[in-house]
Design brief:
By secondary structure, the protein is α+β, with helices and mostly antiparallel strands. The chain has a single domain, classed as Arc Repressor Mutant, subunit A (Orthogonal Bundle), CATH 1.10.10. It is 55% helix and 13% strand. β2 and β3 form a beta hairpin. The radius of gyration is 18 Å and the shape is globular. The termini are far apart.
Length: 111
């Protein structure tokens, strides 16, 4: 009789939670824009992330903020200025994303 082992991802899986935090069509493009351009205002992000709608940008920013990957800073000016920037958690994620890119590029090159 063969032994059955449960998949380590069957229960609360940290890997699945991490992938959910960056998954979806718009999260990585928003994170990449903030990485490339630094702290950005909403309209700057709307301009820099090609094809994203107002609704999707708003939703994506809320989700990234909820997952502690983006920090929303409100400046008490007239009119009020709001900027979004990468959190320290998101900055720690950057080398991992670079490794994923390198892994994919190596795969395409046949190595």
């Amino acid at each position: 009789m063969s032994q059955h082992h449960n998949c380590p991802c069957a229960a609360q899986c940290a890997l699945q939670e991490a992938l959910n935090s960056i998954g979806g069509k718009w999260k990585l493009p928003v994170l990449c824009s903030l990485t490339a351009n630094g702290a950005s205002r909403y309209n700057e992000l709307l301009h820099n992330v090609q094809g994203i709608s107002n609704t999707m940008l708003s939703q994506t920013l809320k989700e990234l903020e909820r997952d502690e990957l983006v920090v929303r800073k409100e400046f008490l000016e007239v009119p009020v200025r709001v900027e979004y920037e990468l959190s320290e958690q998101a900055k720690k994620l950057q080398p991992i994303l670079v490794q994923l890119i390198q892994w994919k590029m190596g795969k395409e090159e046949g190595t």
